[in-house]
Structure formats: structure tokens, C-alpha cells
Design a protein that fits this description.
Blueprint lengths: L6 H14 L12 H8 L3 H13 L3 E4 L3 E4 L2 H4 L5 H5 L8 H25 L2 H16 L3 H19 L2 H16 L1 H4 L6 H16 L3 H23 L12
Antiparallel strand pairs: 1-2
Helix pairs in contact: 1-3, 2-3, 6-8, 6-11, 6-12, 7-8, 7-11, 8-9, 11-12
Length: 242
């Protein structure tokens, strides 16, 4: 058992993985709390606390007298479950899910950059210029990753739209946990800063179309880097320590 997590969190973790792996199918009923408590060697109150967490994630629905029904995560859950879809309990990367995440990031980030170009202020440009300077001088991939995150945060701020900032907030903890995996998406420090130099120039010029296209290009190159890092689809999928 993980000493850093409560028993309820560990039970919830086990049940989340079972649901998201398809062990418990959508529409099926979970075993009774008593049965789960016996199987997992915890008390019933621990299982109930774990069920509360699953319900908050919208993975299950509990009805008095009807039992606990597994929901279809694709129709009910939020980005909180992404971690469990990308990486299995054995540390195997689901390349399809990660590729989908990169594609979505490309679309959203491009539109955010376009909005930033249309709405940016002088203060926004100062913030972006400062981050560019730090990107150019940073040799560490781990730190570069977070400067990249900060630059995207700055673009979201310049876009004057709360939704991308909320989305970045939602994935921040996940990114912190898997920085070692996501570092493979960055080729060299110089290439990262060079790409964003052109993005910031487009934002400065209020050229929304160019800003959008450049950010989409950056994410497309990251997708290519990801495919290169894990090998062709026919090859073995990488295993990483969760």
C-alpha cells in the first residue's frame, strides 16, 4: 500500500483503474460494498469513502435500492481521468489516447494564440517577452517544460478567456506527475524558443491567423516527436514508472 495515500484513496485508485480499463463495463453494477471490502481487505466505511470519490468523478451512479451502476466515462467524466487512460497500472502508455490529447492541445492552443493576437495588451507582450528570454537561456528540459507551460498560460491570459486557464489548472497536477514522460515531446531547447519567438512576433503584430498556424505547427512537431520517441505503431509500447 502507498503510505502517502489514505486507504480510501488507494481503494478508489483500484476501482478507477478497473472501470477505465473495462473490467467493470458501463451499465454494469459494481459488487456490493461488503464484497469489495472483503476482497480488498478494508472495512466497509473505507469502500464507501472510495465510492464517494468515484461518484465525484462521475464514474458511477448510486441509487438507493438499485445498487451502484458504472457510467460510461466518455459521456460523463472529465479530464481528471486522463491519467488512467494514458498510462496503465503496469506503466504501459496508451498511444492512441496520448495522440488524441496532443491533437486536442494543438486545436485549443492554436485558437488561444489567435485570440491572444487579437486581444493582447502591452503588459501581455512584456510577460511573453520575459518568458521568451528565459526559454532561450534555459538548458534543462524539465525546467523548459514548465516555462513552456507558463508561456501557454500567458497566451491564455492575453486571450482574455477563462476556459483555457481552467483547463490548464485541471491538468497541472497531471503534468507535474508525468514531466519525465512529456519531456520526450521537446526536441532541443533552441527549437522550442525559436518556435515561440515567431508566435510572440505574430501576437505583437496582431496577426491571429499566423499565431494560430505557428502554434498548430509547434504541436504538430511535438506529435511527430512523440511518435518517433515511442517507435512505430507496430513496435512495443513503452513502459514508464507511474
Amino acid at each position: 500500500m502507498d503510505a502517502k495515500r489514505t486507504l480510501a484513496e488507494q481503494v478508489a485508485e483500484t476501482l478507477k483503474r478497473r472501470i477505465l480499463s473495462g473490467h467493470y463495463r458501463p451499465g454494469s453494477k459494481l459488487p456490493a460494498e461488503v464484497a469489495l471490502a472483503e476482497e480488498l481487505r478494508v472495512n466497509r466505511f473505507t469502500v464507501r469513502a472510495a465510492m464517494n470519490q468515484l461518484e465525484q468523478l462521475r464514474l458511477i451512479r448510486r441509487r438507493a435500492g438499485a445498487g451502484t451502476v458504472v457510467l460510461d466515462y466518455s459521456e460523463h467524466a472529465g479530464v481528471d481521468v486522463l491519467e488512467y487512460l494514458v498510462l496503465s497500472e503496469q506503466g504501459v502508455v496508451n498511444t492512441e489516447v496520448l495522440a488524441s490529447a496532443l491533437e486536442f492541445a494543438s486545436i485549443v492552443s492554436g485558437e488561444v494564440a489567435a485570440l491572444a493576437a487579437a486581444r493582447r495588451s502591452t503588459a501581455d507582450l512584456h510577460a511573453l517577452d520575459g518568458l521568451l528570454a528565459r526559454l532561450r537561456s534555459e538548458p534543462s528540459l524539465s525546467r523548459l517544460f514548465w516555462l513552456d507551460f507558463e508561456l501557454n498560460w500567458a497566451l491564455a491570459t492575453a486571450a482574455r478567456n477563462i476556459m483555457p486557464k481552467l483547463l490548464l489548472n485541471s491538468v497541472r497536477e497531471l503534468l507535474e506527475k508525468y514531466t519525465h514522460l512529456l519531456e520526450t515531446l521537446w526536441v532541443t531547447p533552441g527549437s522550442v524558443s525559436e518556435g515561440y519567438t515567431h508566435v510572440v512576433e505574430a501576437v505583437r503584430a496582431k496577426d491571429a491567423e499566423r499565431a494560430r498556424a505557428l502554434v498548430r505547427w509547434i504541436w504538430t512537431s511535438r506529435h511527430a516527436r512523440f511518435i518517433e520517441a515511442i517507435g512505430e505503431a507496430e513496435g512495443p509500447r513503452p513502459k514508464l514508472k507511474p
